[in-house]
Amino acid sequence: MKKFLMTAFIMAFGYISQSQIIDTTKTILSSPEPNKTTLSKNWKNIDLSNRSNDHLVIQYGIDNWSAQPDSVKPSGFSRHFNMYVMLDKPFKTNPHFSVGIGVGVGSSNMFFERKSIDVKSTGTRLPFKSLDSADHFKKYKLTTAYLEAPVELRFSSSPEENNKSFKAAVGIKIGTLLSAHTKGKTLESKSGATINNYTAKESSKKFFNSTRIAATARVGYGIVSIYGAYQISTLLKDGAGTDIRPYSIGICISGL
Known about the structure:
- This protein is mainly beta.
- 13% of the residues lie in helices and 50% in strands.
- The chain has 2 helices and 11 strands; from the N terminus they run ααβββββββββββ.
- The strands form 2 sheets. The chain has an 8-stranded antiparallel beta barrel. Strands 4-5 form a two-stranded antiparallel sheet.
- The radius of gyration is 34 Å and the shape is elongated.
C-alpha cells in the first residue's frame, strides 16, 4: 500500500511540474512584441526650457559688392558687424527644428582707395569720383546702418545640449535704413604726402534704398558658425546708380 501511494505521489508531482513548464512556455510565446513606437523619444516629457537657444547672435566678417565696374568697386578690408536679440521656438513634435525671430542692428563699412562718394550731391545719381591724380584721403569709407528683423529656420543635432551640437540655419532679414555717411581721414596729395591730419564726414540717406532684404545662411558647431548673406534688394534707389547688391561672409557667435 505504501509503495502504491509513493508511486501515485511521484506521478502526480511529475504531472504538475510538467503542466507548470508548459504554461510558462505558453506565456513566453504568447507575450506581445514590444511596441516599437514606445522606443522612440517622447519630446513632450523632456525639459528644453534651460537649453541654449541662440538668443544673442553676433556676426562679424567681410563685405563686398556683386560684380561692379572699377569706378564704384570697393577695395581694402570692407567689413560688417551685426548684433541681434532673438526668440527661439522649437517644434513640439521635433525640437531638432525651430524658428528664430528677433530684432537688432546691422552695419557695413565699405572702404575705397583714391575715390570720393558725394552723398550730399544735388543730382539724381550718386557720384563716385576717381582721385588718382588729385588730393585724396588716406582712409575713406562708406558706412550704412540698418534696424533689422531676422527670421531663421534652424536645425540642431542635439536640442537638449544646443551648445554641443551641429547647427544649421537658413532665413531672411528685413531692415530699414538708419543712417548712411562717408568718412575720410588724413588728407594726402596725389603723391601721397600728408596735407592735413583731419577727419571729414558727410551724411545723407538721399540715394540709398530705405529697405534692405537679404537671404541668410549659417552652419557650425556649438556657439561658432560660418555665416553668409546676400542682399536681394539693391543698395541704391532706382535711378540713383548701378544695381549694387552687397554680400557678406563671416563668423557668427550665438548662444545664451
